[in-house]
Amino acid sequence: MFGHNNMPAAASNLPAASEVARLGSSLTQIIVSGPSSADLFVFLNGLPVPTGEVESLSVEIIAPDASGQNGSVAAVLSRYKTGLTGSRDQQATSLFPGTVELIARSRRIVVTCEQDGSFDGLWLGLGLRADGTSSELTGVQSLRLAAAPGLVDAKLVWSDTGVTEDLLPEA
């Protein structure tokens, strides 16, 4: 990883590291500090969303089932924007394609969706390993995540057992 790569820099066809570091799609981060969900911080592509603007953020993934139900994949940030006349208008923004990362109650949930509304390129991860990766989730029937000032909740249902699990239990 570090050290000499035995290739002269001029002969390398690799892109500049600064280009490789660019975000390839949308990144939404939700950070809840402290045990209560009152301290909710939302960042879109590294820029903070002013606290007073956040109405809610939701992620809902429901896998297709054996009965022929298609399933759904959606993530939406609902926020208040001040218009030209000073009125506060509600605005909803789809967060997919992109990655939504929630850090709350000493837990981490990551959802990446490459195509809005599609299960192709959908990836679910939990936690943070020492190498910086997450544990991949498979066998999930549904995942619902909700965050708003004063509320943070994440639940999943396992497809094989139908058991619902709270991903953010209070201590």
Describe this structure in words.
It contains one helix and 13 strands. It has one domain (23-166). The model has no long low-confidence stretch (mean pLDDT 88). The chain has 171 residues and is mostly beta strands.
Name the descriptors.
mainly beta, 7-stranded mixed beta sheet, 1 helix, single chain
Query: Structural class, from secondary structure content?
Result: mainly beta
Strand line-up across the major sheet: 3-2-1-7-8-9-10
Give the DSSP E fraction (strand runs of 2 or more residues): over 45%
Count of alpha/pi helices: 1
Order of helices and strands: HEEEEEEEEEEEEE
Uncertain spans, ≥5 residues at pLDDT below 50?
none
Shape, per Cα inertia axes: globular
Measured between the Cα atoms of the first and last residue, the distance is 39 Å
Number of domains: 1
Please summarize the sheet with the most strands.
Answer: 7 strands, mixed
Question: What is Rg?
Answer: 19 Å
Number of DSSP-assigned strands: 13
